Structures
1.
Amino acid sequence: MKNILAIITLLTLPATATQARNPFVQTCYTTDPAPMVHNDTLYVYTGHDENKADFFWMQEWRVYSTTDMANWTDHGSPLAIEDFEWADDRAWAPQCVERNGKFYFYVPLHSRLSGTMAIGVAVGDSPTGPFKDALGKPLADGSWDYIDPTVFIDNDGQAYLYWGNPELYYVKLNPDMISFEGDIQKIEQTPESFGEPKFVPMEADKKYRSTYTEGPWFYKRGKKYYMIYAAGGIPENISYSTSDKPTGPWRYQGVIMPQTDWTNSFTNHSGIIDYKGKSYFFYHTGRLPGGGGFARSIAVEPFEYNSDGSIPTVRPSEVGAEAIAYFEPFGRHEAETMAWSDGVSTRQSDETGVYVSDIHNGDYTMLENVNFGSGNPRKFGASVASGRRGGSIEVRMDSVAGPVIAVLDVPATGGWEKWQYIETDARIEALGIHDIYFVFTGRKGPELFNFDYWTFK
Ligand code: FUB
């Protein structure tokens, strides 16, 4: 009955095609998205651009996850430069892969040993960490080219690690995933394999195809191997090449995401993955407020492969990916799961994990496609902490000014991490499918409270 009600409500709802979902993380700047599917959940590993940066002075990596493509959970930062004793700067584009129950997190870093860039690998027991430097030294060190690792495990069990800017390198990883056999191989780049021109000055007024620059993303679909990469120098487009073998020869196939000033970012960096029967193209833009070339944000677009396996043009947009499943509201949920937010950010502590912070009067978070079915909640509760006088959480339906389901008064709790769980009665019925807004109110100006989790009963 609940499911039938949900279907009927969804069919009668107005289309939400103009709903902005990109950039899909608004609580901080995120870069270089690397998607991974594990146990029906889609994880995205990212870099983190600093506020007000004038270069890629990046300190840590972050992880986000979803099960419906609209509502994303912030898992915080499970890995940072300080976790690699041999590194001192530039936590650049990562990728994580699972093998035999372990998660291998490949990252570029500036190496104190060589004074150049290097590739490191950390290992963890869960997709969200904690992760630990697996080697205590770089996996590959000694060149400014050594950035942007991409990893893929082939059907026969052989794992490959590609990386590089502006050259493209690879190794065959050993089954332990933290060592490799033989020497580092450099891929020869020709106009036929990765576009043109390469390493020669471009002539004004001449139209060029593309050229490999950085950010490779390596995977297989059917029998075909795909290499997706940032191309064309600065500013970058996203292009791709394919091969019948994991180590080439590669054949240039064209541009997937053309460069456009609309993205407000001179770099782009992509990852492609299939999830719950659909294909998704991840990339980054500079389109959050205050964003730009060193303040980037991750975004995603759905796409369909052409029947010959080629990839169509994918345009950046604010619409992003539509919800592919309902969000079930009953029980406990983390406050840092959201489809959209305004004004807030997140912090993490050992005791609580990630929580919503920097909450001011008028800020809000929002969840999309929430399925109350015929459940009709009687109570709303939340775990909150305030080192000031607190404020309120207004739970509203369908918009920031929509009908109020409940209002929870948040008291002073005696500290920003002194958590209290508080409950209140629901004021109206909530049935069927709605977007849910948590609108924060209180004294104008200062931070009001922190918000860790909520429940509908
Ligand atoms: O995020 C730092 C660097 O910018 C990445 O390593 C490159 O791919 C480019 O996105």
Note: Residues 31-32, 47, 56, 92-93, 147-148, 214-215, 230, 267, 269 surround beta-L-arabinofuranose (CB under 6 Å).
2.
Amino acid sequence: MAKLYVNPNVKKGHLNPELQGHFSEHLGRCIYEGIYVGEDSDIPNENGMRRDVVEALKEIRVPVLRWPGGCFADEYHWKDGIGEKDKRKKMINTHWGGVVEDNSFGTHEFMELCRQLGCKSYINGNLGSGTVQEMSEWVEYLTFKGVSPMADLRKANGHEEPWKIDYFGVGNESWGCGGNMRPEYYGDLYRRYQTYVRGYDPKAPIYKIACGANAGDYHWTDKVLETVFDHGSGFMNGLSLHYYTLPTGDWGKKGSSTEFDEKDWYRTLNRTLFMETLIERHGAIMDQYDPEKKLGMIIDEWGTWYDVEPGTNPGFLYQQNTMRDALVAGINLNLFNKHCDRVKMANIAQMVNVLQAVVLTEGQRMVKTPTWHVFHMYRDHQDGELLESSVETGRIGLEEEFMVPNLTESASLGRDGKVHVTLTNLSLEDSAQIEGIFADASVKSVKGTVLKGGMREHNTFDEPERVHAEAFGDVEAAGNRVNFTLPACSVLHLEVTV
Ligand code: AHR
């Protein structure tokens, strides 16, 4: 019997809702088809946004949405995406499939999507191929209330009032697709560009995010901070980090999303757990510059990356989503909670039809993926307080190099006054008997939701409910204890009233 300890009286930090954030890029069928179908579409929509998709996303309480990329951000010129649609410039999306981008989804449409979702906005500016003036004018267009050339243009385009922009990224992957820069050079450019990301409304400050490292590139983190870190003068609020989970660790042959075996399972989970090492090691460098932890670590791209589904455009990054993805999601969301002292936002890549999507679409049809269900089960952590908690684990796996703990967990005191515990069981074979011990508390009631299934199980358009969360009955409470059996290959949410 493994012991799970939760202390409802010891709070360890605030869980920003943004830890469960999302990312949508002009890539494949994420924006077009997946979210935006246009007002004249046969697919039911509100101002061009698919109603079914928006509804599914509202159910998981999407807290923040990053846009327009990704690599696309550094070749996006925002003025191409405003004004009358039939007059908007068409361009080639060189990064993603070489398709024609007609710019029918632009600034106004993105802000309308955020309005419909009720989420915060995270816009990623173009530092790679855009000018300082262009970035500066975008911020003016978006947020300036008074009389100015860009505010007047926005009004002429039908939006009288400025929008609130919550987060602004200054370049994306500037070490790679965003300009192939060295960290010192990027750091200097960042200093310059961010100067003109003006905070026009002191009551609505913009949180500025510098481009951080690719996975384990600690040199990048160190040099960018050495160049940029401002000791409080407002140059930067956050530094990003990108890390994708590839089953093989090989970009040339990543592996299939659905055709995999038990070894691939543990390799994938082992590789996703590397996220904790990354948080700790990049975090230690950030601590050297910012011991008070004012600077947020913004993990604005994470998730699984497999070979594309056979027969689909390789540039569209469309992949299926199985119970393996559910475990990856549950493990990472637990990790982000545990490290909420430094991690302030995380954005899964990507929201619809691309990489580890929460929703897949095909014509009129839509399915919620296992990953969607995990976000749904974890949503009560949003805005909660992380609680002190731990679980006893054993090492499992099939290869010494890719061993993993059998369990992960995190616990929070939710805004609803309940204790929320989320657990993942990484074992393909063994259920786990768990005795939950709630320190100095008496458990009044407990209820749960579980997502379980075979490792390759997934939802299809013909069988959209094959993997779905269900009520968890296998739980008993007495005194300060809660006993339950966590099925193999599962994710669990317990809501405990103490
Ligand atoms: O999410 C897909 C791509 O991955 C993004 O455009 C880029 O930032 C990253 O390399």
Note: The radius of gyration is 22 Å.
3.
Amino acid sequence: MEIAYFNGKFLPKDEIKISPDDRGFLFADGIYEVMKWYEGFFYDKESHLARMKRGLREIRINWPEEDTFPIFANELINRNRLSDSQALIYLQVTRGVAPRTHSFPDPEVNPTIYAFVKEFRSTGIVPGSGVKVMLKEDIRWSRCDIKSVALLANILSFQEAHEKGFNECIFVRNGMITEGSRSNIFFVIDGTLYTHPESEHILSGVTRKNILRIAKEAGITAKEEPLPEKKLGIIHEAFITNTSAEVTPVIAINKLTVGNGMPGPVTMLIHKSFNAGIIALKG
Ligand code: PMP
């Protein structure tokens, strides 16, 4: 039986009832967070917790027990017998239940807290393989730094990519490549790594941050600079990152083959170092 967390309680998932007046349902008025469990620990849970807290502050949701997230996350892993597996935890916090009106509930109501875990193992990089991505105008709002549950623009863009046979949609805003619909993107030009700087146009990915650290440790120069779409012709490698899939090589962007159509050496080195870091954390 799948056990989920709902407003302080551990319950069978199918017994959880969310009010039709929940502002998450009515307005997508909330944030979410996803962390990965690696057979014994959540990878960089401090950064996930910090991003969650920042998101709550930015959208002015007050959750006094916000520091309990890692604690009930662990408990969910245990109760679902996933301690020895790899798994993802999904957390959602909404502004709570109140009659529908745009202004915040007054008096304030308790936020709605919902979390579930599911077993998930990334496939890693299959030798010689990679994904194809599609470019599209960034139709999202101007606060992509908030991990908002309002993902309609991401969903429509990803679905279009999916229907056209691509694995991800990469956004372009004012001629600059920002990020994917569910990932950050990195490019390699002459051995130097490039990724969009932190700003309101990208989500500050926890994986992105760790890849920048890993690159530095490996002596790879990394520049947080946006890549203009028109410079795509000069890139040697590209990869996307997120919590679930970690590091995924990109071998084609629209009709452009990246490098020789195979994951490049810098991508492979970073992927290897990321995995070595996980193994080291397992001790
Ligand atoms: N950008 C977007 C739009 C995303 O949805 C995600 C995945 N949550 C990321 C970047 C990557 O973030 P992280 O590495 O923290 O999973």
Note: The chain has a mean pLDDT of 97.
